[in-house]
Amino acid sequence: MHSLPMLPDFTDYGKIMRYYTPPPIYSTSRSSCLPRRNQGGFSLIELTIVLVIIGLIIGAATIGKDVYRNAIYQRIASDYVQGWAIAYDRYYDGTGHPPGDNPAAPTGRVNAGVTELCGLALRGYMQAAGIEMPSGRTEGSDDRYVYQDSNGLPHELQICFQNVNWSEPGAVPGTYVIRPRNVMVLKSLTPALANLLDNSFDSLVDARFGKLREQSQAGLTTSASQAWSVDERMAYGSSTATSRDESQVAEVQAYLKMTR
Q1: Whose CB has fewer CB within 10 Å in the chain, the N or C terminal residue?
Q2: Each residue of 159-168: pLDDT tens digit?
Q3: Do 236 and 247 form a contact (C-beta atoms < 8 A)?
Q4: For the segment 192-221, what is each residue's pLDDT rounded down to a tens digit?
């Protein structure tokens, strides 16, 4: 006689569950087989690298803007202001007197030393003498040139000529005397452009001495050197410093001494 097989002990619930628990079903899906990646944010090192790259991009853009503006200023000095100085000399060579002077009774002074010569009157004298003027803002505005300050805001440089009091060394060393001299008047200069022109024409960044001077310093008889009265921190119409990037930079007026 054959014996019956042994049946499991159903009196123990735990044994029953182990006995009848089905084997695990494994998915064949590709996505379920891949390891789960960490869903956290950027690490501190990654954020640092990103910030460094952003800083380099901003720095490069700022340097590029400064280089471009400095190139424009160099062009103003070499082509425009120097171009007007050449035009003045050609007028003098062709007529024997400065523009605006009386040909019948020349005084050797611009406008006979009365007022400054600007705008339409200046262009009229040059055109009548057949003198080519440097290119300015537009056709018919040869005496004006538009440029930008360090905040990217526009300024309009204007060229005039005038006979003014000019301080020169006297007979006694250390003393100065006033003499009438013909000058080019440079209106609406930013401090940066004034300093570049000063360095270009006399290699002296000084508002009191040299060939290029600030208007208020040209006729002083003191021996003290003077800095320009405004700088790039000052806003237009103000004599106090400002750090606002949206402010138009302050302007100054200067005289460039002519050769005769």
Answers
A1: N
A2: 999 999 999 9
A3: yes
A4: 999 999 999 988 889 999 999 999 999 999
Q: Where are the domains of the chain?
A: 44-257
Lateral strand order in the sheet of 252-257: 144-148, 154-169, 176-189, 252-257, 212-214
- Compute the distance between CA of residue 69 and CA of residue 65 in angstroms, rounded to an integer: 6
